[in-house]
Fold:
Amino acid sequence: MQVVMISGSRNHEGQTARAADALLEGVVSAGGQVERIFLPECHLERCRQCDAQGWGTCRSAGHCCIPDDMDELIEKIVAADAVVFATPVYYGDLAESMRTFTDRLRRCATHMAPPRIEGKLAVGVCVAGGGGGGAPKCCASLQNVLSGCGFDVVDLVPVRRQNLPFKLSVLRLTGEWLATGPHSA
Structure:
C-alpha cells in the first residue's frame, strides 16, 4: 500500500509530525510505503475564484489554472492508495495551509472527469496544543471537506497535547489497520 501524508504543519518534529509519524510507522510496519508532504513548504496560492461566478478551470476541466504545486500534489494523491491528512488545530479548525489546500482540492476533485479521488481511503489527524478542546471540531471540519472531495474517510483521530503519548500507540495501530484492513473489511 502506498500512503501519502499531507501535513499542514511547518514543524517536522512537533506534535502534529509526531502523531503523523506514528501512523506512518504503523503503515510501514505492515508493509506499506509512505511519502511525507509538508504544505507550508509547497508553493500554494489561495483560490482566486477566477470568473464572475466564482469558478474557473476547476469546474470546467477538473484542475486549477494557478501555476503552483497544486496539480503535482493532486497527482500524488491520485497515485496513492490512501492519504493521511495531518493538521495542527488553530482556533478549533484546520491550519491555514491545510485550509488553502483543501479548499482548492475540493473544487478540483468534485469536477474531475472521470472521478480520480472518489472512494480513495483517507485518515485525518487533528492535533491541538493548548487546552486541546478544538481537536474534535477540527476533525468535523476535515471530515466535511474530505467527504466533499469524494474520499472514503475511514478514520479521524483527534489528539490533544495532553493525550499525545497515549494516542501515539493508537495511531501506530491505525496505520497498521490502514495498510491491511479497511479495503478488505
Remarks:
- The chain has a mean pLDDT of 94.
- Helices lie at 15-29, 57-61, 70-79, 96-109, 135-149, 164-180.
